[in-house]
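Q: My labmate handed me this sequence with no annotations at all. I'd like to see what the chain might look like in three dimensions before we decide whether it's worth expressing. Could you predict it?
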Amino acid sequence: MLMQDILLGFAFFLVIEGLVYALAPSFLVAMAKLLPDMPEGAIRLTGLVSVALGVGLVWLMHG
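A: Here is what I predict for the chain of 63 residues:
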């Protein structure tokens, strides 16, 4: 069951990532150009918040 959930999550990640590349490539390029100007701490905090929200959503849906 856990492996199936992990694969399902990875599949959703690929779908969403693919949609961003397919539907909004110019937005993706603009965001990538902003990254070098962002402080490392802000990037790290954004990543940690994303992880926490993702774990929270999985917990809510699975709980």
